[in-house]
## 1
Amino acid sequence: MTLKTHTLSNGFRIVTERMEELRSASIGIWINAGGRHERAEQNGIAHFLEHMAFKGTEQRTALQIAEAIEDVGGYINAYTSREMTAYYARVLENDVPLALDVISDIVLNPVFDEREIEVERGVILQEIGQTLDTPDDVVFDWLQEVAYPDQPIGRSILGPSERVNAFNKTDLSAFTAEHYGPGQMILAAAGAVDHDALVKAAEALFGSLTPKPQTVLQKATFQGGARLENKSLEQVHFTLGFEGPDYRDPLIYTSQIFSTAFGGGMSSRLFQEIREKRGLCYTIFSQAGAYADTGLTTFYAGTSADQVSELAMITMDELKRAADDMSPAEVARARAQMKAGMLMGLESPSNRAERLARMTAIWGRVPALDEIITSVDSVTTGDIREFAARMAEEKRMAMAVYGPTSNAPSLTDLQERLAA
């Protein structure tokens, strides 16, 4: 595998990795423009823009965009996160130039037809409605909001319906003009790709773009709090969040290994103690998320209304216990899971292209896999216990609960359990 990078004079970055054994490739444009880049009155516009990119350009109709890729057996998609928007495709080797042409077209030349805006507005409102009807989706949005209240990073990516109902062509064009500059873009490709050919094509497509100022993000400030939404559901959806390290903090590997050992699989403490031994839930897990300047270590479980308090208290007990007796075997297993998951995932060119873009955005370079594995292997049992101890002593927590909440604990109840 051959990793190569290049930066055009206007700041547009190209990063590729050739995978000799493949006859297909994943290619896309990742843009540093997501939910965090929105002002309050713009909440949801980055996601709206992602949808509109597929609704027609100066050269292609919406149908022609889809047909161009699907006629050659490929697929094209996009997503919006809190810090990035991505447009990407997977095609066979000979169709990489076509994929880049289509992706560059939807990124650079959307027409924002008024009729299509209204059609897609309806689609997005349906998406919002579907999310609200999916408790284990919406509860994480609420957790993010109470963790980071009144901040861009705390707002939902989809945005509220009233905002989505108000966006127009001028709003979409203005957001693009402000954030879709060459210095905010990364062209990443992995698989059967020719780096030099992509650089030449990128120069022709993006080389004339005028640089735009980088947006200074509002600093994330974890505050914590609680939101309990009572609704007649079969289960209570319980989430709890602690502030974690950002993705440049060396502790990021500690947080990820802790989350894996604590609630990342069937052998984890939460799964074994709460599901297997006590039968208090079907689904329970922990995970570690990270952003440019903060992170969130999260616990989730779905349980019955009369068992939610017991489940939450046992989670607190297990967190305290992890600070005292997390074993070397558990840590070794979590490290192995983390490394295997990463390496298995990178057998996919789509995952590899995603990694190229994300690492370039975070570090300005793509760390070698051996460098990451060394960092993972350097995390000790003592590091994990210390990380758990800091969480157990933390006074600030975020909690979101959705469903029949009459028996749900308060944040004070959880804090007192940790202090006991």
## 2
Amino acid sequence: MKTWNEKRYHNLNYFLREKFGDKVFKIALDAGFSCPNRDGTVSHGGCLFCSARGSGDFAGDRMYSITKQFEDIKIMMSKKWKSKKYIAYFQAYTNTYASIEVLREKYEEAVSQEGTVALAIATRPDCLGSEVLNLIEEYSNRVYTWVELGLQTFSDESAKIINRGYKLSKFEEALSELNKRNIDVVVHTIFGLPGESKEEMLKTIDYVAHKDIKGIKMHLLHLMEDTPMVELYKQGKLKFLNQEEYVDMICTAITMLPPPMVIHRLTGDAPRDLLIGPMWSLKKWEVLNSIDNRLKELDLYQGMEFKQ
């Protein structure tokens, strides 16, 4: 059985240390972009689970420049870690949803910061036109670059419920174009979407496992104040997973993924003051330790159930 820094899954920390020879930190940035799923281009209100900050609740302050955000977060990080290698992570909203000139300006400012060794861009599959793809390819030739796509679910039916705003075919088109340019793709998935069974959630994992995808983020659905999903919760159409169910599904999912795929995340964060549920998710390290312990108890590891 292969292990990755004593973990039973190919974790991001291991991957980055192997690639860059040191601890590497993400600097989560808010570049001031919007989203076509909010401004009416695709829809209004965004995905039902998305917070007012466009899933960038822990990113820098968009009122400040990229340089100022970078410096502020670096200072905070330096109190705990001495490493001086960073990933410029464009996290909030849709980070390819602007003119090429604006995108170039923001990306350039980020990669020019001292210690930046990688660029990560979170976006939507329907915001990757040829000019944008060419720009990202240009940066990928200068610095290690990956693009994060919010797939969330394999099911187009579930995608309609959460107002994702695009079909699976659009995701596949974007993935193909990124693969042609040798740009690594990291995919977001969510466990606990309204109406999805365990089997349906794991179908999404099986789908991702068999695509040319380099990394995955597995999230727990968080219900936050002032998100459109609150209405579904009030109508009784949303049931929270308990911790045992979530840990069980994550462990199963890990066994289904090919060993080369990097697992960037096993659970997510939500601001305590906004979270409606599930409240157990606030104990992030307890959840992560439970996953590690379950993997050991059952002798599970990444790739053991993966089949081509």
